[in-house]
């Protein structure tokens, strides 16, 4: 895909898994280690089609629902905690950012552009990876599954991210329509659009045909210039 230039927005809000780092296979592996002993594991194509974009809570609820099994709140919390422990062990082996991401983040942060993360992952999943990659300082706010009640495609996470940035940078930020979200899933795009943001989609997880609601499309952030 050709290079893409996007006019400088008032702020940029990044999704995490599938945009900054290729952690979706790691999340899938962690889910399977929890669910397969219970007889309700799912295939990678099922994960991509149904579960990618969900936070851990909704992913477990959906896995149980589709197999006609009950899951109470206590059981759900135990599964989320177990999966998180497994994921922590996996990422300790090292995680790499997608090409061009670290350079983009460092450049945008140095230019004074407000940046945030809006992710369905747990905060405990995200912060160790940001530290590993040396980019934690780039983000003023990180919105995770710990901060909201509903996962994408509900716009709650993006609305919260925008309002926190607005509070932090009142002289730089005026409206969601002047901010940019960077996403890789249909659910994430829908959440950002419902919150009023423009969206740049990257085809790391889905094909361009599945990301048509986005305002911009690229096959790699390495090819994107924000100025």
Which helices and strands appear, and what pairs or packs with what?
Blueprint: E1 4-6, E2 12-14, H1 24-35, H2 44-51, H3 56-66, H4 73-91, H5 101-110, E3 115-118, H6 123-133, E4 141-143, H7 156-168, E5 180-183, H8 186-194, E6 198-202, E7 216-218, E8 224-226
Parallel strand pairs: 1-8, 2-3, 2-5, 3-4, 5-6, 6-7
Helix pairs in contact: 1-4, 3-4, 4-6
Summary, kept brief:
By secondary structure, the protein is α/β, with parallel strands linked by helices. It has 8 helices and 8 strands; from the N terminus they run ββαααααβαβαβαβββ. It has 2 domains: 4-22 and 95-226, 3-Layer(aba) Sandwich (Rossmann fold); 24-91, Putative phosphatase, domain 2 (DNA polymerase, domain 1, Orthogonal Bundle), CATH 1.10.150.
Keywords:
227 residues, alpha/beta, Rossmann fold, DNA polymerase, domain 1, 2 domains, six-stranded parallel beta sheet, two-stranded parallel ribbon, 8 helices, 8 strands
Architecture overview:
This protein has eight helices and eight strands, in the order ββαααααβαβαβαβββ. The model has no long low-confidence stretch (mean pLDDT 96). By secondary structure, the chain is an alpha/beta fold. The two termini are 19 Å apart. The chain folds into two domains: 151 residues, HAD superfamily/HAD-like (Rossmann fold); 68 residues, Putative phosphatase, domain 2 (DNA polymerase, domain 1), CATH 1.10.150. The longest helix is centred in the middle third of the chain and has 19 residues. α3 crosses α4 and α4 runs parallel beside α6. β3, α6 and β4 form a beta-alpha-beta unit. It has a six-stranded parallel beta sheet, with helices on both faces. Strands 1-8 form a two-stranded parallel ribbon.
């Amino acid at each position: 895909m050709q290079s893409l230039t996007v006019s400088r927005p008032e702020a940029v809000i990044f999704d995490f898994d599938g945009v900054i780092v290729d952690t979706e296979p790691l999340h899938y592996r962690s889910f399977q280690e929890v669910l397969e002993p219970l007889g309700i594991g799912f295939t990678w194509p099922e994960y991509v089609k149904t579960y990618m974009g969900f936070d851990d809570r909704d992913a477990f609820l959906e896995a149980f629902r589709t197999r006609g099994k009950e899951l109470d709140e206590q059981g759900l919390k135990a599964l989320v905690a177990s999966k998180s422990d497994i994921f922590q062990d996996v990422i300790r082996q090292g995680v790499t950012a997608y090409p061009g991401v670290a350079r983009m983040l460092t450049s945008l942060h140095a230019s004074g552009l407000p940046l945030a993360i809006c992710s369905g992952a747990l905060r405990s999943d995200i912060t160790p990876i940001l530290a590993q990659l040396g980019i934690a300082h780039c983000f003023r706010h990180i919105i995770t599954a710990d901060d909201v009640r509903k996962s994408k495609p509900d716009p709650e996470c993006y609305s919260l991210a925008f309002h926190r940035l607005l509070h932090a940078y009142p002289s730089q930020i005026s409206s969601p329509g002047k901010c940019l979200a960077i996403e890789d899933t249909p659910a994430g795009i829908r959440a950002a659009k419902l919150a009023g943001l423009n969206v740049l989609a990257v085809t790391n997880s889905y094909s361009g045909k599945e990301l048509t609601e986005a305002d911009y499309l690229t096959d790699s952030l390495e090819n994107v210039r924000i100025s």
